[in-house]
Amino acid sequence: MSMSAWKAVILWKHQLCCVPMLADAKDVMEAVRNLEGARLPVLTPNLKGFEAAIAAGAKEVAIFASASESFSKSNINCSIEESLTRYRAVALAAKKTLNSCPWVSELAGHEYGQRKNLILSNPVEVWLWAEVYGEKRRIHSANPRYVSCVVGCPVEGAISPSKVAYVAKELYDMGCFEISLGDTIGVATPGAIVPMLEAVMAVVPVEKLAVHFHDTYGQSLPNILLSLQMGISTIDSSVAGLGGCPYAKGASGNVATEDVVYMLNGLGVKTNVDLGKLMLVGDFISNRLGRPSGSKTAIALSRVNVDASKI
């Protein structure tokens, strides 16, 4: 199996929308705004949320659709088609926001911009950090990339791969630079992942795809390995296995970053991630939240005298 070097990027996601427990998103955004080296995408379900995100200082906005009608109505209170209509408006607003920057045309012609494959004619495909003549500048952008319930829904059960492919292509046609396919309730197995990915890859280039697994049934790592073998190179994960969805009862958090890094190290994939330091981050947040780590790697290594940075 041949895989290119995997690069970890710090992602912080919060949601400016109708979920009550996320009503403090603006305050959180203010607190983390100047976090060096991190991308801080903000989830938004509509144009109002996009405007609130930009007002709060967001430089990257992510939108999220579902392949399940029932989950779409539970999560963002609208049908799939209604959500896609809303997101087209967000994509257009993102393009207008970008075009309002006076240095955009200068950036497009600069060799650094060309090297980073900046496609400024695309409504939402923009590299977040661009360096023009040695000066770093931030770009407002939208990243309409999340498709939830790509294998199963807590209400409807199994989801047809054709539904996932339809939603993914609609988002891609809006101009998304990455579409993350989410197993929201963690029911996916490798046998279910193959037909889903094949259907999506038939309409969206594989280099534009990412996968997002919840570890409810302990299937995340085999699903990730299969995804890598099928050409996916972007994997969502969360330190200590944090995460979840208030509208997906019973689902666990995302696959733990510690476990993904441990597996990649075992495959000989260079990540440049210090597993020992990563575990310290997991310990910190787990202690602050008063919950055990969701990482099997962190739990196992905490019981033995091993230097995790050398694993």
Name a few traits of the molecule.
single chain; 311 residues; alpha/beta; TIM Barrel; seven-stranded parallel beta sheet; two-stranded parallel sheet; 12 helices; 13 strands; globular; disordered N terminus; EC 4.1.3.4; metal ion binding; metal-binding
Question: Which helices and strands, and how do they pair?
Answer:
Blueprint: E1 10-11, E2 14-15, H1 25-32, E3 38-39, E4 41-43, H2 47-55, E5 60-66, H3 69-76, H4 80-99, H5 104-109, H6 111-115, E6 129-132, E7 135-138, E8 141-148, E9 152-153, E10 157-158, H7 161-174, E11 179-183, H8 190-201, E12 209-213, H9 220-229, E13 235-236, H10 257-266, H11 275-289, H12 296-301
Parallel strand pairs: 1-3, 2-4, 4-5, 5-8, 8-11, 11-12, 12-13
Antiparallel strand pairs: 6-7, 9-10
Helix pairs in contact: 4-7, 7-8, 8-9, 10-11
Descriptive notes:
It is an enzyme of class 4 (lyase). Keywords: Lyase, Metal-binding, Signal. By secondary structure, this protein is of the alpha/beta class. It has a single domain (10-255), classed as Alpha-Beta Barrel (TIM Barrel), CATH 3.20.20.70. Helix content is 40%, strand content 15%. It contains 12 helices and 13 strands. It has helices spanning 25-32, 47-55, 69-76, 80-99, 104-109, 111-115, 161-174, 190-201, 220-229, 257-266, 275-289, 296-301; strands spanning 10-11, 14-15, 38-39, 41-43, 60-66, 129-132, 135-138, 141-148, 152-153, 157-158, 179-183, 209-213, 235-236. The strands form 4 sheets. Strands 2-4-5-8-11-12-13 form a 7-stranded parallel β-sheet. A hairpin with a 3-residue loop joins strand 9 (152-153) and strand 10. It starts with 9 loop residues before the first strand and ends in a 10-residue tail after the last helix.
